[in-house]
Each structure stands twice: as structure tokens, then as C-alpha cells.
Design brief:
alpha/beta, 7-stranded mixed beta sheet, 36% helix, elongated, binds S-adenosylmethionine
């Protein structure tokens, strides 16, 4: 996300110089921030994980409602601002949330939790995958992402936006866009608009091994222009004849983008069990 107004370097609110390298595009509109927390259906019984505290504006809205909030921030320069706010039942952790061990993060949270975050654009996908694939305690993710990523998250089979991200999210839960957010709501103003996406985790939504499922899906989409047959043959190191013999009910000359999540589940069961 490149900043349009890179000449304006200092944040209007707290004298902070936003860092492009950390994807720092801050929001100060409290109506929008509280709406994001509402989209996440946070209640006084909830423990919340925030990734990317920034100046703490969203953290503050979360902490007004949640029982407990743990918020990660990579930028040590934001420490004085964040620690001086004395937010109730809130712990700030200064490290890279992507590199931090998931078990360690979850031990700080202590119980099942919801993620609420205005995500730094450059770690959006790896972060979603880290929690989606690794966590047993995550209940939902309500995240601000670039509009184009939001469209990929909720895409259905057959469209150009449908890909690994759409399939893996639909496998683990139910996703919807809860609001569109104009680029003008951020400081500095980025080059693209954003959207808030809510992903509710549905445990054991499909009765199939999740590592095997991920292997099939990632293999199937490895070369977008190739057929399912070609991609799976390379990814699984299986001959095309063997795959075709096993997948007699499928037209394996279709491309991955035309297969539904349910079809990928069936293919996984046939080829990898
Ligand atoms: N929550 C604030 C808001 O809504 O105004 C800030 C959102 S800003 C888009 C993203 C924040 O994530 C920045 O403060 C940035 O420093 C932080 N960040 C970037 N990469 C991170 C990482 N790997 N781990 C933790 N925080 C990170």
C-alpha cells in the first residue's frame, strides 16, 4: 500500500511519523473503530488478540468491551504512546507477530479468543494462514484488509478472485465483508480502499485431514493456467494416468479455480487417504 501523501510525514494526532515499512496507516475515527469491534461481535466475556496496535486507537475501543486484550506491535517507537494509555485489562507485546510462536501467543491469551485487527497489508496472507491453520482456540477474525484482498477472501468458485486464500478460508469457516472503508479514513492515505472482513471459525466443518486438504489445494493452484490434472501430478508426484483413474467422477482437465471447496474435500479423500 503506497502512501499518496508521503510528504506529510507526521501524524496529526500524536506527533508520530508513520513508517511505510511497517504498513502504518492509522485510523482515528472512533465511529469506524467501534464499528469494527461491533463487526467482531466482541462481548464482555471475550478475550481479544489485536495484531498491530499502532497508536492504540483500535485497542482502546476493544478494551472498552473485552474482558481481556492482548495487542502485538512490532514498532518499539510506539511503546511510550501505547504504555502511557493505561488501558484496562490490556497487555501490549512488542514483537513481530508473524515470527512469534503461536503457542506462546496463545499462552498469553489463556483461552479461546477473537482476533480484531487493522492489519499491516504486507503480512495479511501469512498472518491469516498462521492462525487459520495453526490454531485450535481461534473463534473468529475480524480484519481490515485491502479491498482486493477482501474480495479474494469471500470469492466463490468460477471467478478470477477465487484462489488458495478463498478455499482455505471457506474450509475453516464462514467469511463475509462487513463494511467497505474509504482510503480517506487512514493516515497517511493509501492508494487503495479497504474493507472489513469477518471470518467465523467453524470447527471440523469438513471431515477430512486438514494438512492433506491444504496440500491438495496448494498443489492444485500452483500454476493457475494449468489444469487440475497437470498441477496435481506435479505436486503429488503421481502419474497423470493414476490420478485420472482415481478421479473418474471429475473432469480433471478443468482448472483449479472452477472446483468448489466440497470438490477439493472429495479429491483429498480419494487421493490422500
Ligand atoms: N491498529 C492501528 C490502527 O487501526 O490505527 C494501526 C494499524 S496499522 C495498519 C498496522 C500496525 O501493525 C502498525 O502499527 C505496524 O507497526 C504494526 N505491524 C506491522 N507489522 C507487524 C508485525 N509483524 N507484528 C506486529 N505488528 C506489526
Amino acid at each position: 500500500m503506497k502512501n499518496n501523501n508521503e510528504k506529510i510525514k507526521v501524524s496529526h494526532s500524536k506527533g508520530i511519523m508513520p513508517k511505510h515499512k511497517f504498513g502504518q496507516n492509522f485510523i482515528s475515527d472512533t465511529n469506524l473503530l467501534s464499528a469494527i469491534v461491533r463487526d467482531g461481535e466482541v462481548t464482555p466475556n471475550d478475550t481479544v488478540l489485536e495484531i498491530g496496535a499502532g497508536e492504540g486507537a483500535l485497542t482502546k475501543e476493544i478494551s472498552k468491551i473485552a474482558k481481556k486484550t492482548v495487542s502485538f506491535e512490532i514498532d518499539n517507537d510506539l511503546k511510550p504512546i501505547l504504555l502511557s494509555q493505561n488501558l484496562p485489562n490490556t497487555q501490549f507485546v512488542f514483537c513481530d507477530a508473524l515470527k512469534e510462536d503461536l503457542e506462546k501467543i496463545e499462552s498469553l491469551l489463556g483461552e479461546e479468543y477473537k482476533i480484531i485487527a487493522n492489519l499491516p497489508y504486507y503480512i495479511t496472507s501469512p498472518l491469516i494462514f498462521k492462525f487459520l491453520e495453526g490454531s485450535e482456540k481461534l473463534l473468529s477474525m475480524t480484519i481490515m484488509v485491502q479491498k482486493e484482498v477482501a474480495q479474494r477472501i469471500v470469492a466463490k468458485e468460477g471467478g478470477k478472485d477465487y484462489g488458495i486464500l478463498s478455499v482455505m478460508i471457506a474450509f475453516h469457516g464462514d467469511a463475509k465483508i462487513t463494511r467497505q472503508v474509504s482510503r480517506k479514513m487512514f493516515f497517511p492515505v493509501p492508494n487503495v480502499d479497504s474493507a472489513v472482513v469477518n471470518i467465523k471459525i467453524v470447527k471440523n466443518k469438513f471431515d477430512v485431514n486438514k494438512e492433506n486438504f491444504a496440500k491438495i489445494v496448494k498443489g492444485a493452484f500452483s500454476m493457475r493456467r494449468k489444469t487440475l490434472l497437470n498441477n496435481l501430478s506435479t505436486a503429488l508426484k503421481m502419474s497423470k494416468e493414476e490420478i485420472q483413474q482415481k478421479l473418474t467422477h471429475f473432469d480433471t482437465n478443468r482448472r483449479a479455480e472452477s472446483f468448489s471447496v466440497q470438490e477439493f474435500v472429495e479429491i483429498t479423500k480419494i487421493l490422500l487417504s
